[in-house]
Write the structure tokens for this entry.
Amino acid sequence: MASNAAPLGTLPSGIGIFTCLPDIFYLPELVFGGLVWILVASSLVVPANPQGWVMFVSVFCFVVTFLWMVLFACGAHHSKPGWAAADFVYHGIAAFFYLSASVALARVTIEMKDGSIFLNYQLDISAVVFSYVATLLYFVHTILSAIRWKSF
């Protein structure tokens, strides 16, 4: 029976990052993070709106996750335990950032419900949903990265 995890004490490289846990989450993280970025960028921003933080988080996590995925795919880590710890730390920080951005975005969306244009409200609701999905993906990736790190 095939396993979805890399052997203990190893980090996948090349195409292997798309077939094992937790690295299989890279692409969904990029997709949902990109959707948050696009939806927030296309929504109405009022002066007292904390969507700048949401944009920072979505762009930062998109870029760093893409670079992290490329580093793993190129094999720059060479199965060293320091990379597993760094993977755990980065995804933990990203999950925390996304959670804070999701809460701020949800608060703004609730406050804008009565006075906003319906299309902008729908965009904001979609951004909130995708932001919480991205938070969940980063959180699960953090837990699985911690398990992999402890197996070294």
About this structure: Residues 109 and 124 are 6 Å apart (CA to CA). The mean pLDDT is 82. The chain has one domain: 21-42+49-150.
